[in-house]
Amino acid sequence: MTTSKPRWIAIVIALLVFTGAGLSRISFNVDILKLLPTHLPQVKGLSLFLKHFSQPKELIVTVEAPTSELAESTSDALADVFAKHPDLVQRAVARAPWEKRPADLFELLAFLVLNQPPEQIRALANSLSPGQADATLKSNVEKLGESISPQEVALLSYDPYNLAGALGDLGSFAGTAQQSEFSSADGTFRVLYVVSARNFPNYKAAIAWVNQIKQIAHATVTDPTIHLGFTGEPAFVADISGSMEWDMTSSGFVTLLVIALIFYLCYRRARPLLELQAMLVLIFTLSLAAAGLFLSQLTVIGVGCAAIMIGLSVDYGYFVYQRSLHHRGTVGELQRQCVQNIAWTSGTTAAVFFALNFSSLPGLSQLGNLVGIGVVIGAIVMLTIYARLTMRFHQSQEGRPPSIVERLFATPGFWRKGAVLAVMIVLFLLGVLTVKGLPQPDFSARTLRPRKSEAYVALDRLYARLTDDRDMLSLVVAGKDEAEVLKRLRLAENSLSAAEARGEVKSFRTALPLWPVAGNQRANLPLLASVAKEIPRLRESAVAAGFKEEAFVLDEAIFQQWAAWAKAPTPIWPTNDTSRWIFRRVASHEGDQLLALGMVTPMPGHEDALTNAVQSEGTWLVSWNQLGRELRHVIPREFAHVIIALSAIVVLLLVIAFRSIRAVALFVLTTALVLACLAGAMSLLGMGWNFFNLAALLLLLGTGTDYSILLLLALKRNGGDAPAAQRELGLVICLCAFSASAGFGTISWANHIGLASLGQTCALGLVLDALISLFLLPRVWTMIHPRSHPIRGKAAS
Amino acid sequence: MRSLLPFLCLLCAWPGLAAEPLDMTPVKKWLAKQDDLHSVQADFTQTRALRALRSPIATPGHMWFAMPDSLRWELGEPAKTIVIRKGDTYFLIQPAKKKVERYKADNISKKGGALGFAMINFPIAKDFADFNRQFETLSVTATDNHCHLEILPRDAQAKKMLQAIKFDFDTTTGHLLSFEMATRDGSSMRSDFTNVRMNQKIDRHVFDYDFTGYEVVDGKN
């Protein structure tokens, strides 16, 4: 005893350190793409897009007011208030930077002109020469009098030498392209971009910051007719991570509660119940700590595992407790009796779940690892600690009268009526399946989003009131340097032009006009940089032609910018705030990978052909809708492969365990019947297959099959005596099924639509599995083994 | 002094309280006269006073309009910019560049960006209700048979650029005398109409244009 005490203390300390270290490393990843196969082009393209163009620190605040004046003043007032909190907000942008300071566009214009072909620049330089400058100015004054375009008049008024003319249609690109970022056409809906002053180390920091911003905004805007919305990446992280945390803790807590209720109804004992609950909390904590230490960030699928782990681990607790009730030997003997059953069921379950690592779906791999770890820890805890605990108090309960539920399970009539009911349910569901067919697949983006999210509501409003780009495709072009991206951009531009000519594209816009062309820049810089020396002459001529001096400010700034770039290495990128704002959603050139973005509006029905035509090395045409289409093709095939592989593993393990082809065949038949009934039930309830509840099939393969395995082992042990096997395991299997269903059932209310569908499908499948395994499997066994006898020496146990 | 304060406040507020609703009768009459309008042709001088220029630029022009939706608007002599409307399509023609931009009338009315067409959008409203739906009236000043009207479009984007749209018209004949767009940066574009001929026959070929050799593209609103 004296030697074991320090050992126990050391074990407890080690566990505490392990748990503390693990739990402190838990973090959530709200990126849905982390669940999907990375080899899919759509996943690859969208991941790159999000990595380079998502704004992790930028909250989008929407302001909706009855009048445009009120919306504008509110949005400006909010920007001013946020600017007074430099500890929270790095910047709050309520209108395009060039709206306040149009002159700041000079750098972008200088850059765009610099990018043009050298022959065009030679013509431009010639138009500025002493012999041509006056004619250039005269022609532009005439244009000012004749143009019908207010945009052209506005620009030309402050660009007397028409430097923007060298850009062709591109001159108006920046202004028109960004216009919809801040205001709806009627002005009653405005958008404000609020950038956090600091990075968010974890989701809790994002939640806290978003809440602070919301508080400030609501304190500033008290008019009830003005509606504020909050979206953007920090809002999504706050919303989704918050709901993931809530789903995880609430489903785990409710599962524990339901298990307690079921246990108490069956056994009417408080102490073993409390100890069982303590074991479940321990298993959950240790599994989560292991996940924190060994796995990367938890995804939305991983969150659902809390309830599943509890629901599965409790099975082993029930089994140990049930055996302990009739056990009269030592703890070691009880453990040895239980180990075979628990090892087989937990072994097959863990093997199935760990085997999910062979899948190319990272989300499923994480699910597999989490549940696999949980199941192994659960089996160890129940066998080593709970078995010891059950032996401590079972002596005092000898002579305890059986509970109503226990008596019910001992009645032959219960099993007879149950079998009739099971047959009726199975026939009904098979009938439904025949009539209504298989559940329909649904791989749309709908299943990837939360049921309730303020950030999604605000985003939907933003789409409705500003430009809705959900039907558009994003052109993502990546490369290791500017030259490679430029080459790919040109190829993409050619493919899209050809597609436009074929009638597959309504319109498109690539980043090509904004991408630096190093060769042109090198050729143009000496000529353009030298113009700065001519500034006094050019100013004088402009004034003489009728322009005021202030009209020359923009052109002068452009000339000076070219001179400032004279010695800069090429390719040159513009760097001032206005240019950065324009480029932030078009080009990314920091880091080891460069990216350019474009938008394509396809003609309806041509999306797939277009995606295939444009896609090439480093070039993707992506959208969430296209991802859904790709998943519809790939995921069922992927799942079919995984399911076949896992089924083969389970069958192999069972051949070793049963050493009977008939038993294995019966197991396969039972599983097939369960899946057919599940499909019928899903069709009846109008449920569809999606990425998440397809994973439910794998879960059923790993968990629901335990019931038939336990029953088949009990039948073997009892020499084919079906009533004896049912009496022995009926209550345990019912407890297991109800507990696991409760675990899955609690995630049916999860905020995430996909996760909720996984919970519903699993809960349904487990109930069906228990029903068929308990009531029909023993009857079929009796039919195919009419003269089987108890295995000698094992029947008694 | 304290007892005088409410009285002083009331006195300060008096002009506001006393402001009478605008008398829109001349505008209603002017718009109603458009029911009798079948065609109109006129010469005009467009004067652009731009903030960046030291003196205004005056350009002569001609316009033809026939109900319901045929229009030709020429700016410059010879014409440097021509706008032709046929049905629901506007063609912006630049003869020097041999280029034609095509715009859908619906898109133009939906988007405030194509403000340039506001200068040639004729008639400005179908009736008084349509006028009120599109515009906010800033002032109406009627003297003898002349009326000066200042309005502002309700469209937020147009409102952001414009300070006022000003009309001068003859209340007895309904002739438009001048039209001016004043922008918020202090610039203005004014068209003064002369030689206005109403309901005279216009050769339909006026509204045609031979696009041979021209590049025709869809305009970006």
Describe this structure in words.
The complex is a heterodimer of chains A (797) and B (221). Chain A is of the alpha+beta class. Chain A is built from 31 helices and nine strands. Among the domains of chain A are: 62-95 and 182-231; 103-168 and 518-570, no CATH class; 238-395 and 425-447 and 627-784, Up-down Bundle (Multidrug efflux transporter AcrB transmembrane fold), CATH 1.20.1640. Chain A has helices spanning 4-24, 41-53, 68-83, 97-100, 106-114, 118-128, 133-146, 150-157, 173-178, 203-220, 233-267, 271-294, 300-303, 305-325, 331-354, 362-394, 404-410, 412-436, 454-465, 482-501, 518-529, 535-544, 553-564, 577-583, 607-614, 624-658, 661-684, 691-703, 705-717, 722-747, 753-784; strands at residues 58-64, 89-93, 189-196, 227-231, 473-479, 505-509, 587-588, 594-602, 619-622. Chain B has a single domain (22-202), classed as outer membrane lipoprotein receptor (LolB), chain A (Clam). Helices cover 19% and strands 43% of the residues of chain B. Chain B has a twelve-stranded mixed β-sheet with strand order 7-8-9-10-11-1-2-3-4-5-6-12. The radius of gyration of chain B is 20 Å and the shape is globular. Chain A binds chain B through residues 68, 141-142, 144-151, 153-154, 157-158, 160, 169, 172, 176, 179, 183-188, 543, 546-548, 550-551, and chain B through 46, 48, 50-55, 57-59, 75-76, 80-81, 83, 92, 110-113, 115-117, 119-120, 155-157, 159-161, 183, 185, 187, 220.
